[in-house]
Amino acid sequence: MSKFIEHDVQRPSSLYRTSSAAASFASTSPTSNGKKKGVDIYEADEQGVSPTDSRYSRLNCPLLLFAITAAISSINYGWVIGSINIPALVIEECADGPVAWTNGFPSCIPMSSTLWGLVVGLTPLGAWAGSMFSGIAADKFGRKHMLMYNNAFFVSGAIIASTSTSVAQLSVGRFVSGIGCGVAANVVSTYCSEVSTIRSRGFLGGFQQLMILVGVFLSQVVSIGLSKAPLWRVLFSISAAIAIVQTLLLFFIPESPKYLASTKQIDKAEAVLVRLRKDMDIAFELDDLLTVLEYSRQTDYVPQPTMWQ
What we know:
This protein is mainly alpha-helical and 309 residues long. The protein has helices spanning 20-27, 61-70, 72-82, 88-92, 113-141, 143-162, 167-195, 201-205, 207-226, 232-250, 257-262, 266-276, 283-299, and strands at residues 3-4, 29-30, 36-37, 43-44, 101-102, 105-106. The chain contains 13 helices and six strands. The strands form three sheets. It has a two-stranded antiparallel ribbon. It has a two-stranded antiparallel ribbon with strand order 2-3. Strands 5-6 form a two-stranded antiparallel ribbon. The longest helix has 29 residues, at 113-141.
C-alpha cells in the first residue's frame, strides 16, 4: 500500500508555487507496455520517500560535472600551495649553480631560509584575507561569477611569481595567489553544497578537500621535471593556465539555485533545479527553498555576514 509524504514544516501560502516542471512531470510516464499513465508525485515508498522527489535524488552526471568544474579552483588551490615545495633549494639556494640571467630573468633568487619561510607563509596569509571578503562578494555577485572573478587572483599571482626577479616580487605573487586560494576555499564549498541533494551532500561536501589534495599531488608530480632553473618559472605559471581553462568552462555551468532564489530570480532558480535534477520533480525542493529563505528574512535566522564572518 502506498504511503504519502507528510511535511512537518508549515509553509506560508504566499510562498507555495506550483512548479511547471512538476506539472509536466506528473502528466505522463512510460509504462512497461509502452502506454502512458499518470504519475502521482505524492506517492512514496516504505521509507516515506517519493521516487520522483528531487530532494532525495542521487548524484547524477550533470551535477557531478558542474561540481568538478567549480572544484577546479580547489585544484588550483592545491597547486599553489604544493608547487613551491620541491624547487625550494633551486630558488632560494641556487642549487643549480650561481645566479645566471637569461632574457632579463635570474635563474634563482637567493635568500635566507628565514626569508624563504616568510615568502611561503604569505600564501596562507593571503588566503586568510581572501576568505574574509569572499562571503560578502559571493552573496553580491553569485557563486559562479565569483569563481570567475577569483581566477583573476590566480592569473595575476602566477604571472607575478613566474616573472619575479626579486624577493619582494615573489612575495607579492605568492600573496595574491593566496587570496585566490582563500576565496576558492569558501565559494567552492558553498556552491557544491547549494547544488547538491540530501543524498549527494556528503560526497560533494568533501569534494573540495579531495580536489585540493589532487592539486597538491599533481603539483608534486609535475615538479619532478620542472624543479630546475629556469623551469621553476613554468611550474608557477601553470596556475594561470588552470584558471583560464576553468573560466571558460564556468560559462557552461548554472548558478546556484539558492543564490538565484535569494535574489528573487525564482523562475531562473526553478529552471536550474530542473537542469540539476534530471527527470525528477522539483516542486517540493523549490517550495522548501523558498520557505527557508522567507523564514530567514522574517526572523533574521541567517544574519547578514560582516567582514569578520
